[in-house]
Each structure stands twice: as structure tokens, then as C-alpha cells.
Design a protein that fits this description.
Layout (H helix, E strand, L loop, with lengths): L6 H9 L1 H8 L7 H5 L4 E4 L4 H12 L2 E6 L2 E2 L6 H4 L7 E4 L5 H12 L2 E5 L21 H9 L4
Antiparallel strand pairs: 1-4, 2-3, 2-5
Length: about 150
């Protein structure tokens, strides 16, 4: 017991402090991804279309469709070449905002037209849906919509 009050005992307690805290106050499993995930990502005008789509996928789980006029851009080209009269250099991917608000912000700040779809790029997400809810539109939901008319 005397060892606990020595310098080496103090070092042992401090080195195992995180274990004791986790033991007494466990962190639920659903909270762990939030600890390791960046708080907010953004799309900048210096990115390419693929980099922007990947940043959006990592932040929300959805697919970002980028357009030039009526034509969807599938090539890996810089966003600066697509921008028409940009007023800024970046747009934050903030998950509480709705899909419509994000699309408006992309159009106003970067001058780029976008649409948001599900992770498998099959179902377009409604404009009133928050970006944080895109993960709810899973592949199973999409295949269910396909199979419904066949039943």
C-alpha cells in the first residue's frame, strides 16, 4: 500500500488513468466513430470532382453529383474550371443542414450545381432531408424500392 504513495506508484496510476476512466464511464459504441471523425469537412475550389465527391462521401455517406449545365461531370477535372462566378473558396459539409441548403450554398459560393444521392448513387435524396440522414438511404432500401413494383 505504501508503494501507491511513492513517485513510481504515482507514475503507474497516471499511466493507467485512461483505463480506470473507461472502466468506470464506458463510452457507448455508437459514439466511437464521432471521436475519430473530423468534426467538419469542406469542399474547396482547388479540389477535383473526384476529391470533392470523396470528401462528401466521407462526411455524409452519400454521393455528390456535380454538373456543368445539364451534363453530369464524371471526369476528374478541377472544380475551378466548372465554377461560374464563385464568391468564395470553400463550402463546409455541415451535417445538420439540409440537402437543399447545401446545394444552394454550393451554387452561391462556388458557382457549381450539385445533386445529392444515396451511397449507391441510385436514389436522389429529398431537398428537405438533413445531410446527416443520408446514411439511412442504404442499398437495401434502394433494392426494396426496385423490388416493390415486381411484387
Amino acid at each position: 500500500m505504501l508503494y501507491c504513495f511513492t513517485f513510481y506508484g504515482l507514475i503507474d496510476v497516471l499511466s493507467t488513468y485512461t483505463f480506470y476512466v473507461a472502466f468506470l464511464l464506458p463510452i457507448p459504441g455508437w459514439a466511437l466513430p464521432a471521436l475519430f471523425h473530423q468534426s467538419m469537412q469542406s469542399i474547396t475550389i482547388q479540389m477535383t470532382t473526384k476529391e470533392a465527391a470523396e470528401a462528401f462521401r466521407q462526411a455524409t455517406g452519400g454521393t455528390l453529383r456535380i454538373y456543368r449545365g445539364q451534363r453530369r461531370m464524371v471526369d476528374d477535372i478541377p472544380l475551378s474550371t466548372l465554377a461560374t462566378e464563385p464568391t468564395g473558396t470553400s463550402v463546409d459539409i455541415d451535417t445538420p443542414q439540409t440537402v437543399g441548403e447545401f446545394g444552394q450554398k454550393m451554387q452561391e459560393v462556388l458557382g457549381i450545381t450539385v445533386q445529392v444521392s444515396s451511397s449507391d448513387d441510385w436514389q436522389r435524396i429529398p431537398q428537405t432531408e438533413p445531410l446527416g440522414n443520408i446514411k439511412r438511404y442504404s442499398r437495401k432500401t434502394t433494392s426494396g424500392h426496385i423490388m416493390r413494383p415486381l411484387k
